[in-house]
Amino acid sequence: MDLILDFSLTSLFLISVQFRFATWKEVLMMVEGSVCSLVHGAASPLMLLVYGMMTNTFVGYELEVQELANPNKTCINNTITWLDGTVVERLDNSTTYCGVDIEAEMTKFAFYYVGIGAGVLILSYFQIALWVSAAARQIQRIRKMYFRKIMCMEIGWFDCNSVGELNTRISDDINKINNAIADQVSIFIERISTFIFGFMVGFIGGWKLTLVVIAVSPLIGLAAGLMAMAVARLTGHELTAYAKAGSVADEVLSSMRTVAAFGGEHKETERYDRNLVEAQAWGIKKGAIIGVFQGYLWCIIFLCYALAFWYGSKLVIETKELTPGGLVQVFFGVLMGAVNLGQASPCLEAFASGRAAAKSIFDTIDREPEIDCFSEEGHVLDKVKGDIEFHSVHFNYPSRPEVKILDDLNVVVKAGETTAFVGPSGSGKSTTIQLIQRFYDPKEGMVTLDGHDIRSLNIQWLRSLIGIVEQEPVLFATTIAENIRYGRAGVTMEEVIEAAKQANAYNFIMDLPQKFDTLVGEGGGQMSGGQKQRIAIARALVRNPRILLLDMATSALDNESEAVVQEALDKARQGRTTISIAHRLSTVHNADVIVGFEHGRTVERGTHRQLLDRKGVYFTLVTLQNQGKDTDSDKPEYKESPKCSVFKLKHLSYRRSLRQRSHSQMSNNIPDAISGKFKIHSDHLETEEFDKSKRKDEEVIEPAPVTRILKYNCPEWPYMLLGSLGAAINGSVNPIYALLFSEILGTFSIQDLDEQRRQINGICILFVSIGVLSFFSQFLQGYSFAKSGELLTRRLRKVGFQAMLKQEIGWFDNPINSPGALTTRLATDASMVQGATGSQIGMIVNSLTNIGASFIIAYYFSWKLSLVVTCFLPLIGLSGVFQAKMLTGFANEDKNALEAAGQVSSEALSNIRTIAGLAKEKHFVSQYEEKLQAPYKRAKQKAHVYGICFAFAQCVIFMAFAASFRYGGYLVSNEGLPYMMVFRVISALVTSATALGRASSFTPDYAKAKIAAAQLFKLLDRVPKISLSKTEGHSWDDFKGRIEFKGCRFTYPSRPDIQVLRGLEVSVHPGQTLAFVGSSGCGKSTSVQLLERFYDPDEGQVLIDGHPSASISVPFLRSHIGIVSQEPVLFDCSIAENIQYGDNSRTVSMEEIIEAAKKAYLHDFVMTLPDKYETQVGAQGSQLSRGQKQRIAIARAIVRNPKILLLDEATSALDTESEKVVQAALDEARQGRTCIVIAHRLSTIQTADIIAVMSQGVVIEKGTHEELMARKAAYYKLVTTGAPIS
């Protein structure tokens, strides 16, 4: 007893850790709820007292009837006497009581029952409602605190935690905590209270027997305790294993285009599957362990029955210490206590997994960020000049402590001057910028602003002084005006407009149909590079920063856009301290000071002229870059004429989308080719509304038919059969127990002592054998269903993931299918489906056999009484069904509402650097909290509904007892039904009803499972518009690589109103190089995407070797194409594995890898790394510099040995030194291959066989460099405008 109490107290103590965030109000709610649970728990034992009195009444009545069967006996003054008036004495000289008015007695008992039932109704409603709403409030608070804490972590923490994992934590782990602190606790308390009161009733009835039973019960407590511990441990392991798989999925879905281009779908599915295996193993272990303990519990309980009954009957018959009613009371009191203790153990499972989940969440909440961006501490300077100085700074990234990035760096940046940092990639230029923003703190040395160490300054204030424009600016999924407003709180519209004018963005914004209210799409996907860049500059300027940091702000732009952006930057620099990092040295030569970096330290500083004279790092970079020039240096200056300012939109092209997310959303509208004016389509003004309504339609999902779910579980049928067998045996245990129990009561009215003893021993032996049997059957059920369920979950996750990878790229453009949402869907849906099979089937089989056996027994012995009892069964069943229905309704809404919050958190975590730089963390926190309001309101409503259903279900049984025993009394007195039959019928049917109830208590899972399954099947049934199967479409042997575009017209599915290609005509022969040039948004990258068959043209054809692309097998076509894009996506594995990714149809040998690496000028660099080819590249290749990533991408394309090579601005993001190397590698790769090059930098394509100049989706002129220069038309204008060609 002590052990059990002790155990429940410790578990309650451990749970209490999860209530750290409760306010006094919630504590009060939980205390009130607990009190209700306690009192509710006492109701059943209280009923036992009534039951005991009732049993005595029945036994007495039966003895009286047996005596009076003798015609010579009669009843006088409530004592049985002979007809001559002498009192009848029994063997032990006692007299026999008579004159029981059985019906009146039964009426009295019926009223007791009704009273208890009414109490239960009220208590159980409050118990659930209070606990569930208290939990909802705490979870709301935990969600907020967790998100807020993550948002104020320093950037180094994000380097070490993957975004996918954090998203999973926010959704799944917090739900686990919710399960552990809501209704489960109140039910746990109620069960423990029943346990305690049950034992008390036992002691009141007969202490000897109670003690005997108690002697055995520690065995039960022990089992439950061990089980909880084991489950917690295993759940923890399972969680970590799943988090790994989740981050794989997130990584793959985020870089869908790369996966598609290299045919990596199968490989990625396998990689995902490998991570699932581990989690599956833990899940199966968990099932087996639960099975063993459950079996052990039941076995012990039945052995207890045997012992208690054998000893109890001794006390009744031989020593007369107990009445038969007393025996029933003790026996049931202790039994009820024990069973409730057993039933409390599933709650412990929920607590345990909740605690495991809480640990990781609370650890984060408790972690003190090294750089807390919410902290109010630190000085605020009254006047800022803007002198920045680095004093012998040493630094390495926390995720890679062994690589030194800055090595004793000393730099002075004077106020009001423009200082340019130049140097090869990986020399630490961008790192200095991150240190100035205080994303990281230096390991040694310090960074000062006006002589103050920036660590002593207030961080929000410090960041508010700094404006930053990056190479790949991140815009948020809202309007242009809002994006600019992110720069500073409380900006007026005038200031927004002013900033837009300074950034040369005003004109193009005013040309848009919705002007400043145009939505930029997720990640700014609807804007071209130049437009995004200018919006980002406006955002930086609206801050009115003292310090402006430009990190390669123009490198990703084409010449025309670059000239405009450069001009905006030159305006912006006036009178501010500016640090500019650029790879194109043409953009830095007019800086006041140029600082040369090499290997993490500065090697030279001076003006453009001084450094050229010094002939150091800068000189080499400049001379390298100038070799490309072959036109005279006095180029006409490019002024933005009104005509040119008709801005060129470009769709978020291949390269960018490859890196960021898998969007490819298009430019907003395309200038009309002929008039040079805008044609605006009003269709997409409604897109947002349309999107909303579309989402509504999409979410109405019919639950999936169970048969289909089972089909997926087909291969496990032997396990399911075994499990069902186990469940069937477990189900029939209860009815058999009802039979034996009534037999026991029957034995007390047997007059012959020997017969009585013989029967009793027989019954005890039966009890023992049932106990042993149920041990095995419970284990069988637990293990088999865990195995089949885990295998199913894994299979569904795998198929779901496979189905996602099979979809055409256009599908990923739909914001509903953003990587974040898809990862969450994989994580939660598949594991929920388990609720519809596996353990659920076990539950159903168990309940069915239970109900079947009970009905047979009951109707066989007394059909009249059975009918009365049966009337109550539908109510008991109904309450369960009702409960289920309620929860399904909620399940759907909850999920959606949390998905909205999930999108906010996903956007925030993916772009954490930008948000930190803008000091906008608080804004995102409040946006997230706003999105949590709706689900929170619903959770609170749910509490009451759930409470009402639960209360109804709990009190029905008391009403059933009242009616049936009253009628039983009538049958006994009027129709001579033996009283043991009354007990037999009622206990058989009531146990079956509780089985029904138990089956229905699993219904919430079941409902959720069906909805989750339906969502999965919807995905599996979707037929992709472009099939990836190897069998569809044809292939041929001698693939040449001749490409023709014939009259291609194309619009992106996500922007149906804008035509990107308008009749593209161009062809290229095998082995030739075709270069596409043209301003942003003219459809260059789009043509590449059509060639890869990410999309198919709406009209016209793409012919490859004369075959229309739509008829060619996609894997075959892609296997002959290699692609190198501007921002290559690398996967989070080793360098060798990334190169091997080039050819996923076979295993690439190490020799080939090295061969390819040599061709890509990568080998020497790799050999300098400590782990050589086994070096991990980090998430998205974050551990490498751009030039290194680019060369890995080239090696990856070479390994493929493609006939067609696509180079999509492959060098634009590199500095000069890396670019030379990469360009050389590309030139080598082009040998003997058909090559399509897209370049913004014209020097890289002068050697091409054909140069096609595109504008607004058509080719306006084509020819070689010389021919086109001679024509003095569009190409000539492109070559001679904008920044000097580098």
UniProtKB/TrEMBL annotation:
Residues 388-624, 1043-1281 form the ABC transporter domain. GO terms for biological process: oligopeptide export from mitochondrion. It comes from Cyprinus carpio. PANTHER family: ATP-DEPENDENT PERMEASE MDL1, MITOCHONDRIAL (PTHR43394), BILE SALT EXPORT PUMP (PTHR43394:SF24). It is found in: Cell membrane. Its main location: membrane. PROSITE patterns: ABC_TM1F, ABC_TRANSPORTER_1, ABC_TRANSPORTER_2. The chain crosses the membrane at residues 110-136, 185-205, 211-232, 288-311, 717-740, 760-780, 857-878, 945-965, 977-996. The lineage of its organism: Eukaryota, Metazoa, Chordata, Craniata, Vertebrata. This is ATP-binding cassette, sub-family B (MDR/TAP), member 11a. One of its GO terms (cellular component) is plasma membrane. Keywords: ATP-binding, Cell membrane, Glycoprotein, Membrane, Nucleotide-binding, Repeat, Translocase, Transmembrane, Transmembrane helix, Transport.
